[in-house]
Each structure stands twice: as C-alpha cells, then as structure tokens.
Amino acid sequence: MAPRRSKGAGAFPRAVEPPAPQRPDPAALYAALDLGTNSCRMLIAQPKGSQFHVVDSFSKSVQLGAGLEATGRISRASMNRTVQALRICQKKLRKHGVQRMRLVATEACRRASNRRELLRLVRRETGLEMEIIGTEEEARLAVISCAPLVSVNTEQLLVVDIGGGSTELVWIDLSRVPKLERPRAIMRLHVGFESGPSPFPKAHVVDWISVPLGVATLRDQFMDVEGDAARFALMSCHFEEQLAGFAPYADEQTREGFQIIGTSGTVTTVAACHLGLRRYDRNKVDGLRMTSDQIDRVIESYLRLGPEGRRRDPRIGRDRQALIMSGAAILQALMRVWPTDRLSVADRGLREGLLYAQMSTDGVLEDGPF
Fold this sequence. Notes:
This protein is α/β, with parallel strands linked by helices. The chain contains 15 helices and twelve strands. It folds into two domains: 26-133, ATPase, nucleotide binding domain (Nucleotidyltransferase, domain 5), CATH 3.30.420.40; 137-350, Nucleotidyltransferase, domain 5, CATH 3.30.420. The strands form two sheets. It has a seven-stranded mixed beta sheet, sandwiched between helices.
C-alpha cells in the first residue's frame, strides 16, 4: 500500500492524616481516548497553566489489528477484547462525570472493511461514540503533543509517530518564527496544517506523510522470514524504501538547528533500556535526548538476546516484546536517513494531542511558556 500524503504538503515528624484530595470539578475535565492497532489508551485531565494535570488514565493491549493484514477485517476476538477495554473506559468517564471528550480510532479501523460493525458494537455495549480520524489529523495531533519538547534553537523539526498500524512523519520549518515563540507556534497547528492568515508567527509544514507500516503491520509482513537478524534488516530496509517520496528526504539538510522528536512505545522502551531503568519512569524518559550510537547499542542488545531472551527481559515488557524489533527497525531506518545523531524522546502522543487541541479550542490554557 502506497504511503498517504497531503496535497500541500513528563528525627521524623509526627504522622499527620493528610486531608482528602479535592475532587476535580467535572466541568473542568477533558478526556482523550486513542484506539489504535495494538492498544486502547485513555487520559482524563484538567487544564493547569499552559499544560494539563492527569486525573486518571487507562492503557491495555487489545490487538485490534491482529489478522487484519491477511483478511482485511477486524476479528471477532479483537472486537471482544476492545469492547471489554472500552467498558472500563466508560466506567472511568462516568465516575469522573466527564463531559468534554474525544474518542478516536486510527489505522486499524481506517483499513478494516467491517469498521462500522465495530463502531455499532461499541455503541451498543458501552454507549461510547467512537470516531475514525484521518491520517492528517492523526499526524497533526501527534505534532502538537510534542510542542513542549521543541527546542527554541530548532529551525527544522521532524516529528515521527510510530504507531501500531502506521507511522506519521511531519517536517516543519520554524526558521521564520522567533525563537521563544517556536513551541507555541507548534501548538497553534491544532487548527490545521494549512491554516489561513494569522496574527501570530506561523510554523510552516513543509511536508507530511503517513506510511501504512507500524510495529504490528511491519512485523506481520515479515513473519515468514527465518533468522532474527535477517528479518530485522529486511524490515528496516523496507521501511526506508517507503520514505523515498517524502520531499525533505532527498534535500540536503544541515545538522545545525535540526531536531527529530520520536513518539511511540518503541522509542520510550529503547530510552528506558538505555537508562537501565528497572521500573519505567516517565519523568526520566520524556524529553531525554539519545544519540544514534546509544540507540544502536540498545538495538544490538535486543538482537543478541534473540526472541526468547527478549520475551524474558523485564525491561521490554510482555506487551512490547513481540513488537519491539519491528519498531526498532523503523527507528534505525529514520536515524540512518536524516542528518542528525540525536533523537528527542517523547512519552506523549495522540491522547495528549487530543487534550491540547480540545483545551486550546476552548481557550482554557494559559498563553504562557510551557
């Protein structure tokens, strides 16, 4: 399947009983749910300054895209797993009395011929109204979620969101935006990549692309290849071939002022392994900058472990071990192509983008520094 693209291109004091935490005002709560090819994730948050405070969250692997590559349909087992996860989400939404929310589905539902059947089942069993969003909106939401991580010295920005069923890449020119305004200019993209006249300095989207290969779909395409290292090499080369039509791919770029931000479970897992974390810590991972050599060393350690070793490795985790090598193949291809030896790690993505977009539209975020 050809990549889709746009036309325009984190002495002991005496014990005192703490006061009960104040219950958030339901009117100030927002929810964002992302039903992807592999996982179902939700955040409930309230605005706080120029960002937000997470009140509740949920994440579960539902493998919605299992078998989709071969049949073009979402299986009954995948639908059942998804409905069970969404019932939990619905209970959390009801518990907190959330009124403002967006519940979206992405690549698996875009591709499945029986997607409407799934949406009807979800509505009937949970009362939740899901919407399937397009590739441009998915890319745009991933970009604005990363706004707080954009360096004021960045002139050319590449945001990469490695999903379960697709990978979105967005190249943004910030050279005409004053340095201190650059993160804010990224946030303003919530209205669209090709918005009209604005009184504020604008970030220019040079090009964007949605490659229909994510950690699950790329793995499924190469499951019949024997040999762990050979499979990894083929996956990485195949993904790189899909980038040939991405406009900035062929252009000569300078290292100075160039930043890549990667957002995905793959990127955060590699970062946590690099840090040697025995227990995942978002505060240490989100915003970390890794060199390409550090990324390569982690990937080489995965290859030395082999499939069985990766399954037993607690750093990778049960939910991630089956998908880590296809994600690593995508990550290595990206670091081969563009002129930088550093990657900014983002433990954020579509859900955060959905929250920022809703709050920005409602005008409840302060217009101050991140």
